[in-house]
Design goal:
This protein is an alpha+beta fold. Helices cover about 55% and strands about 20% of the residues.
């Protein structure tokens, strides 16, 4: 008789457990679903805002022209306090908009202005330490700074992008 009583108690506890699990599922799942939907909406909004912040000009692929400065220059990086001298070897490629009104003039003058361009690149990159310049986000920031300097120096929007064709750190 004791065996049957224990079996009945175990069966009753199992049924109570099943009922409580069902109640938890029906009570908690709607709020968990709503929370998941809210997080998804917030993530999509933040993603859209990040994309809109980058207001880069778009150029048709047939209007893209490039000018490469083949000679890589070695630039001393800012001292990070470790006492080690760090360097970066960099060569750049400028992307030009060939549909721009200024394209012919800029493209013709660029070979004579390589020294000025190299100077601007050196001025920007030498402000970073080794730890900073090896970060891809900082490299993108440096490219933007170089682009702004070149656009201001030559007073043209024809140059719309700067890329590192060679980038080696030591």
């Amino acid at each position: 008789m004791k065996k049957n009583l224990i079996s009945v108690v175990i069966l009753a506890l199992c049924i109570i457990n099943l009922v409580l699990n069902a109640i938890i599922i029906f009570v908690c799942m709607p709020s968990a679903t709503k929370t998941n939907k809210l997080i998804t909406e917030i993530s999509s909004i933040l993603n859209l805002e990040l994309e809109k912040q980058e207001d880069k000009p778009t150029v048709n692929i047939k209007d893209i022209a490039t000018y490469s400065i083949e000679k890589a220059q070695v630039i001393n990086l800012k001292n990070d306090g470790s006492g080690d001298s760090r360097y970066v070897q960099v060569a750049i490629t400028l992307s030009l908009d060939s549909s721009s009104k200024e394209y012919e003039v800029v493209n013709e003058k660029l070979p004579n202005l390589e020294g000025s361009i190299s100077n601007d690149v050196r001025d920007v990159i030498s402000t970073y330490t080794y730890a900073e310049i090896t970060d891809l986000e900082i490299q993108a920031q440096a490219k933007e700074e170089i682009l702004k300097k070149l656009q201001e120096r030559f007073q043209t929007e024809c140059i719309y992008s700067v890329d590192f064709s060679t980038f080696t750190t030591q």
